[in-house]
């Protein structure tokens, strides 16, 4: 009895080899990582929050306003509101 092509016992089907290389390429592509960058301004804000640098005057003003609003005693100054809105209406009427 004669056995031909004994070297083919461990041979891999070329289609199977091609499919395996495609799987490996897909794994390489899927392991790519996302990147995140934080701006310098955001880093400064985070550092200020962590160090506890809070403007005491501003914090007390905000707390005072919150109490006035919740108590119903907050009064809007119409003159200040009109003065701050006037430039906006001047710009929109010119366009």
From TrEMBL:
Belongs to the FlgM family. Residues 20-36 have a biased composition (Basic and acidic residues). GO terms for biological process: bacterial-type flagellum organization; negative regulation of DNA-templated transcription. Residues 1-36 are annotated as: Disordered. The keyword ATP-binding does not apply. InterPro entries: Anti-sigma-28_factor_FlgM_sf (IPR035890), FlgM (IPR007412), FlgM_C (IPR031316). Keywords: Bacterial flagellum biogenesis, Cell projection, Cilium, Flagellum, Repressor, Transcription, Transcription regulation. This is Negative regulator of flagellin synthesis. Signal peptide: none annotated. Residues 34-85 form the Anti-sigma-28 factor FlgM C-terminal domain.
